[in-house]
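User: We ran a pulldown and think these components assemble together. Before we commit to crystallization trials, I'd like a predicted model of the whole complex to look at. Sequences follow.
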Amino acid sequence: MTASGINRAGSAPRLRRFLELAFRHNPVNLGDIRTGSTFSQTRKRLLEAITDGTVLHAVFSSTRDVASFLTDLKAEDLGISIVVSGLLDTCRRIAARTGLKPHTVAVSLGIWGRTETLPGPSLLEVTSMCGHGMIPVRLVEKLAEEVASGALGAREAAARLARPCVCGIFNPRRAAALVRVMARRTAARSPRS
Amino acid sequence: MRIDQHLCTGCGECIPYCPVSAISLGTTSIRSEIDRESCVECEACLRAGVCPSGALQWEELPWPRAVRGFFSNPQTTHRHTLVPGRGTEEMKTNDVTGRIPPGAVGLAVEVGRPLTGATFKDVQEVTAACARSGCVFEPNNPLTALMDDTSRGTFRPDILEERMLSVLVEMTVPQERLPGLLDSLKNVSLRLPTVFSLGLCQVVGSGGEMPMLDILESQGIAVRPNGKINLGLGRMLPPPPAREREE
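Assistant: Here's a predicted model for the assembly, 440 residues in total across the polymer chains.
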């Protein structure tokens, strides 16, 4: 991410370079919030459409891939702010492995207020992967039912869930695993089972 | 958003794509309808691209309804900050902005997240409580621009009934004021008709210390295992030469 008045003007080539480097390290998703993600756009389109000041995300399923990506970013010295998110202990270890010192750390204190109105934890685990709230509960339920009935595979269900997340932070690999579990529970509850 | 009732075939394909369940099949017709009070104008239904007849249509939104889209549609670029998404850099650029200086704590209260949505009236409950605890609202957050009095955390009255998917309130407090602010947030959470997600951030000390974590422990507030780390890789960069800027 770039900062207004500090490194935003003319940042498009550096942001493009960020994406080019990310592609080398097996991302399971990535995106430009202004354009979309790898589930709605081609890589070529994503690279071409980058503009100054846009916000980019890249998601990985392997800490090794994250570490190697960060090693490349450190060497490239793009001068743009990089934030790594996930389990904090894991993020700290990866940072240490790549010789990077945390500057600012953000912690989550969870959800407060009328939490009894929220859907169950298995649904929230899927929907909350999109920080902008673009993954509807009803879509998760519908696709889990389709996986349970055999009409759809879990990976295709995860791909359909990834599309509404325009910034590309949704992890489809994790989503497929979660939907598989939900589908098994649904199938187990079915009168035919 | 609107659904043209002459074009709608009642297929229902759009219904599961609404994050706030504002679309349903009509009770007196077989067409899909949008509950305008619940709709937060995020355009997720339109982006899904599942309507076979072009019935789902974007419409120009008058003020104050337009504010729904500003805060709910992640592909909006905010006029005030020119940042897409939530319209604010948060702690993500703190290595270069110093938005949260050492010794202070940054708070991010996202009202309506996850999934429940919030009106500005709900948000005002939170911001008024925080203002009484002596916080400073982030001036580069588009929400702050809508306050009519930042010292009281109140908003212009014409937007209070508008509903959004979620709204991010950002503020900074000196470390010593954090316990009081957390107590205020605990109290407001008991009477709010929605939820909020709460996050704190702090610059890491030279020895890796983060005093805010000790404060949280002393208050009996659990820290979730997930979080974010700004890796300090940003820096001031010169703007491009004038010729490139013209291009």
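Chain B has two domains: 1-59, 74-218. That may be worth checking against your pulldown data before setting up trials.

User: Thanks, that helps.
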